[in-house]
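Box 4.2: Ligand-aware structure prediction
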Amino acid sequence: MTIDVVIIGAGLSGLAIARTLQGQTGLTVMTLEKSRGPGGRLASKRIQEMRADIGAQFMTARDPRFQAVIDDALSVNAVAVWSPVMGKLTAHGLVHSPDQHIRYVGNPYMNAFARFLAEDIPIDTQQRVQSVTQVDAGWCITTQDTQLIARQVVLTSPVEQTRELLPETALHDMLYGFQSLPTWTAVVESSQPLLTDDGRVINAAFGDGQWLDFLSSEQSKPNRTSAFWVCHAAPAFSQSHLEADAAEVARQLCEMLKQHLKFQATPILAHRWRFARPADAARVAQKGAVQLAPGTVGLQ
Ligand SMILES: Cc1cc2nc3c(=O)[nH]c(=O)nc-3n(C[C@H](O)[C@H](O)[C@H](O)COP(=O)(O)OP(=O)(O)OC[C@H]3O[C@@H](n4cnc5c(N)ncnc54)[C@H](O)[C@@H]3O)c2cc1C
């Protein structure tokens, strides 16, 4: 049987596409995901019966179509507004840095938003796609268990992983022109407040690009009670520690928090995202999905 569309990856991109196609009658759609559940980088990790968001920390809605999805999720409490007191690490220390953004988070953890998006979407989990090759009927998708033939394939894995699946296509140059940066993420625990130099309590802070990218308190997000803080290291730190031991990275980031922010925390764990974000921010709109069909190649 030839499937109309196979979607590879059930992260935000794959789920958005699956939801859009779901409304189109007569199309057979299959979503394949290598992990045990949906979400990808909308990730939350269970720790001591609680959870911490170890991927995206918040979302803003700049497109009315995404705002409509957020509104749906808000109406069933799968998403909530997060209003942290924002700070920024500068050469002069940590300063208060308010802005006008409306920030949304999954409720009560980020992956809950992915689970909301995945409702009613059949996802074949623990199916790692190994290759995608062009055949007469369209595309042959090979996983560890099976082979499928699809008229169209939507690939939403990070670009470096996508190019391993598509070694020889007309997309070769575009795929190899793209580079992702890594992020080491540490979950740390602290009951101490994070303070600016003039004593103001801060819930989340952007980094200086040197060692810190973003730091946020889980407790400041709606419906969370843990004393966990999530610390995303800056790309430079993450790259230079790429193959380091996770426990050592968590320990080092705690040291940096103490040294630069006078913030005392205990390391809990660290997670390495090899492909966290595009190196070229201008290509941010191209990181999600590439559409391939026989005879037509283009970006969405
Ligand atoms: C540390 C970090 C912090 C971030 N912070 C923010 C933030 O604050 N705000 C924000 O808006 N964005 C943030 N982002 C970015 C945001 O998380 C991503 O842009 C978004 O989640 C990407 O969704 P996606 O579906 O395109 O990719 P992914 O979420 O990466 O989804 C791809 C899916 O494909 C699956 N997959 C990969 N290979 C295969 C295969 N061979 N076979 C089957 N399945 C496969 C993966 O398991 C994954 O589920 C952050 C990302 C990271 C890593």
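In the box above, the bound molecule is flavin-adenine dinucleotide. Residues 2-43+117-178+282-299 form a domain with the FAD/NAD(P)-binding domain fold (CATH 3.50.50.60).
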